[in-house]
Amino acid sequence: MARQATMKVWDVELGLAIHIAAPNGKYIVIDLGSKANVSPLRSLLLKTVGYMVITHPHHDHFSDIQNIKWGYPKVLWRVKDYSREELVESARAGEKDDFIAYCDFCESFDGEVEPQNNPKTTTPFDGLTAEVFQTNACNKNNKNNFSAIVVLTLGKAKIVVCGDNEEDSFKILMNRDSFKKAVSNAYVLVAPHHGRDSGYYEEFVDLVKPYLTIISDTSEGETSVTEKYDNKTKGWDVYNCSTGKRENRKCLTTRNDGNIKVVFGETDDPNYSGHLSASMHCSF
User: Which residues contact 71 (CB under 8 A, 6 or more apart)?
Assistant: First the structure.
């Protein structure tokens, strides 16, 4: 039987929270965004989180940190280029306790990753792999450019999830053959920097060539380049859970389409190389 994974992109307004259930039921978590009365981490009660990536240390990407006990991972990837002092000093009013909790959490992961838990291999997630790409060669004044880009692969199906990367980090990453090979010809792109103009890098999007682009953002976002992504995205039929109908879409946004679910992976149909299905306005 073909193996498939399910990715949930939570509507957390300004922020990012993504949960991926592997074929064996274990979870990969990318970022810890949240919003009023919505804690994605709490949905992971009694689930096994094998791997967690916090793409970069901006509050909207770990605002759910006080609920980390609900989804404590076996393996953590995080940016290691900022000290505790630098991070706590950068906290805005009302965020300091979360920054301290974030630092405490990150500092609890200092050991080597055991082979059976290595997310770059097919072992822990029954064929699903997760590879992280990042550069620390940019100016430290902009944490966005230290963001991770995560490539999820299951069979021939590929998902690319960006943090808040901007031009400077893309210029460096696009000089790496390993990065270009990893992100090319993906099924889905989760757009960098909440679909803002500062995160749009045309050469990168041209390489990804997604069927669907997903933007996680609030309706109060300052800028959006959804139209640019539309022009670079192939399109796919998406099921609308509110209407019970399918719509051909290129870009999905949490601000308009709510929670988004994507199922990807292998297929038993010899006419296709991989499986992709998507739904919007989902109840998680």
Answer: 27, 29, 41, 44, 47, 49, 52
The rounded distance, in Å, linking the Cα atoms of 195 and 199 is 7
Task: Answer for the pair 106, 78: CB distance below 8 angstroms, yes or no.
Answer: yes
Listed in order, strand segments (DSSP E) in 216-274 are: 236-240, 245-249, 251-253, 260-265
Helix (H, G, I), strand (E, B) or coil at 69: helix
At residue 96, φ and ψ (nearest 5 deg) are -60, -45
**How far is 36 from 12, CA to CA, in rounded Å?**
9
pTM: 0.97
Residue appearing with tokens 């901006």:
58
Among left, alpha and beta (phi > 0; psi -120 to 50; other), residue 241 is alpha
Distance CA 171, CA 165 (A): 10
CA distances, 8 to each of 63, 109, 139, 190, 284 (Å): 18, 25, 32, 12, 8
Q: Residue length, the chain? A: 284
Beta bridge partners of 137: none
pLDDT, tens digit, 9 for 90 and up, residues 169-226: 999 999 999 999 999 999 999 999 999 999 999 999 999 999 999 999 987 766 679 9
d(Cα 185, Cα 208) in Å, to the nearest integer? 5
**Domains within the chain, CATH numbers bracketed:** 4-280 (3.60.15.10)
Q: Strands 245-249 and 49-54: what pairing?
A: unpaired
Residues 84, 75: Cα–Cα separation, whole Å: 20
How far the first Cα of the chain sits from its last, in Å, is 26
Give how far Cα 265 sits from Cα of 79, 183, 211, 212, 226, Å.
29, 16, 14, 15, 26
